[in-house]
Amino acid sequence: MQTDRMRPVRTITDAGIPCLVWGEDALALAHCVPTVFFDLQVIVPDDQVEAATLAILDAHPYYQRSSTPSPHWLEYKLIDPAEPYCFVNSITLRLVSPPGHVPRDDDPTTILIHPQSHFYLDVRDHSRSLSLSPPLPLPYANIRFPTIAAMLDAYIAAYLDPPLGYYHYSYACISSHFAEWRP
Description:
By secondary structure, the chain is of the alpha+beta class. The protein has helices at 3-14, 23-31, 49-59, 148-160, 171-180, and strands at residues 20-22, 40-44, 63-66, 91-95, 110-115, 129-131, 144-146.
């Protein structure tokens, strides 16, 4: 298990902020879906997005806020030439390495902190999430991952009632994992 990649999430949980690991990390680590890691995505309560951001920035000085959207979550140019960003209410943090600092291989290069309302979730509802301890070491026991049902429900809700007012086709990448993968 890659605990280095989960260090920013542990920082959020250690600060007492409820959260869920989301996206490819949740699919791969909690549900053994073969996928590539892109941005580390974390969902927190709407009123704690800023607190989660500050917790990471204080504990991990090699991350900085970025106003540049993650390229993985821009709309496909063929769908909309303007390429709008999928997560307009999320915070983007980028890994920046000062001279002499070598990042670990598993350090996420981008962290996305999402408000829970974007995915119609309540991160405090533990009936819709699970812990990976074990196999994660005990200090990581408070890190929560959504159940497959919770993830699928969230993406269906985003399809039926799009948070942006229209369906963003970048969701199709994650949604395709559900169609291809059989538990």
